[in-house]
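Long-time lurker, finally posting.

We've been working with DUF7133 domain-containing protein (Salmonirosea aquatica) and I want a structural starting point before designing mutants. I don't trust myself to interpret raw outputs, so I'm hoping someone here can both generate the structure tokens and explain anything notable. Sequence follows.
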Amino acid sequence: MKRYLSLLSCVLVLTCCFKVPLAQAQDKKTQSQRSRVYTPEEELAGFKLAEGFVIELVASEREGVINPVDLTFDDAGRLWTQTARMYPLDPVADIQWNDLLKLMDDAEAQKNHPAFRRILDLYQGKTKGTDQILILSDLYSGKPARSSVWADGLTIPMSVLPYKDGAYVAQGSELFFLRDTDHDGKADQRTPCSRVLALRIRIPCRTSWCADPATGFISVRAHSTKV
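Top reply, 14 upvotes:
Generated this for you. Predicted structure of DUF7133 domain-containing protein:
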């Protein structure tokens, strides 16, 4: 009996000892030791570079660059990028698993499903999203870069290719051309080009492409992960 009570006492002591750390571990969302959000300058100071390398802060959330996915330069030396405020966009969260299996390879059924219809309407621009395409200029003046919104109402645009007076944009299942017809620095015309990704349960990760100014041909390679 004494041995049993001693063992029970040890268990109670161990439970009391580990109760607080366990509760703290459950409340802790990440392994980071940070107690606050760092400024861009503090983040920059935290990099460790090899000898001979230099790193500079070009833009941050202060310039509206939120969750950037891609970047490219145009002939004028301006940097183009885009936001992904709407990520993650999950059309399958409320669908039962057996129903999901049937939908995965049935594009027509997805078109008629309300969850997928909502996503498709966003990708095709029938419903406005909250993401943007940004242009960063004055990159070489020694001053903070100037950011301007070139296009808005988008939904997680994955890649941008500046071309003449506009830009090709890959967004979800869609490839389209945005054009600035009145040259006010903001896109005002959208022309669908192709369905570069099938309407399936896919997460488009990256679209690689290049344009040939002489022929006008565009080479596109889309990378995606099937859920």
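Before you design anything, note these points.
The first strand starts at residue 71 and ends at 73.
The chain has five helices and ten strands.
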